[in-house]
Amino acid sequence: KVIDEFDVSDGYKLKLQVGKYKGVEKIDLRLWVKNAGNSEYAPTKRGINFNAEWLDRFMEMAEKLY
After folding, report:
1. How much is the pTM?
2. DSSP assignment, residue 22?
3. Which of 7, 27, 36, 37 has its CA 20 to 30 A from that of 54?
């Protein structure tokens, strides 16, 4: 399920998604690229995927950036 997304540059989007993998809730923040042949976007290897139970700690780490 896509939570949010935004265009980072022409032909690229950053998407935040949640879903399950092998029964474990996962959070995925990934760069998506627009295919040259059509207007569809495809995920790239550039991103992060982690267990949803780590979200609180991840947010604490991200707050230290400011």
Report:
1. 0.85
2. T
3. 7
C-alpha–C-alpha distance, residues 7 and 30, integer Å? 12
Q: Decide if 32 contacts 42 (C-beta within 8 A).
A: yes
- Cα dihedral angle (38, 5, 44, 34), rounded to 10 degrees? 20
Q: Which helix (H) or strand (E) holds 59?
A: helix 55-63
Q: What tokens appear for 14 in the block?
A: 């950053």
Q: Which domains does the chain have, with CATH numbers?
A: 2-63 (2.30.31.10)
Does the pLDDT of residue 15 top 90, yes or no?
yes
Kindly give the pairing relationship between strand 12-21 and strand 41-51.
unpaired
Sheet with 12-21, side-by-side order of all strands? 2-9, 12-21, 24-34, 41-51
